[in-house]
Sequence to fold (183 residues):
Amino acid sequence: SIDNRIGAFIVLEALRILKAEGGEMAAQVTAAATTQEEIGFSGGGARACAYALDPQVALVVDVSFATDSPGMEKKEIGSHRLGGGPILARGSATHPLVFERLAETAEKEGIPFSIQANPRFTSTDADSIYLSRAGVATGVISIPNRYMHSPNEIVSLDDLDAAARLIAAFVRGLGKDTDFTPR
Fold:
């Protein structure tokens, strides 16, 4: 049951990092844990949460399949290994400027990452968040998870740390003039 629960841990760790760094932040940060993400495409709690909060940007934290074990098809979702850092999603439910900013932040911070193509949907809360109200600039950060949906799920602690540091650095880099309007 690492799937989804680990996302809450990572977000809380990112908040802990931001607090430890101190100082003023230009962005108001709200963390939310939602329910019913895997029940069809109804959006569950994420849809209601995004509607109520009306955020300018949202980061969804979840897991994706680690592909470094026998039988996993890298051609389908990419090469994502335990210890290889977080996975950044790119596709129709993710905002291109949020993706670019996450990738640039990871490179600047020396955080390894891989990219997962999601041309139709992400199978995460992003699928309902990005459609909320007039639209929400949304990014997805996933952790490679071996044996997902089994009693033996495995993730790397290094990946958890890297994802939390990436989120904290992303948030710290937001300014009052940050604009996710495509140009």
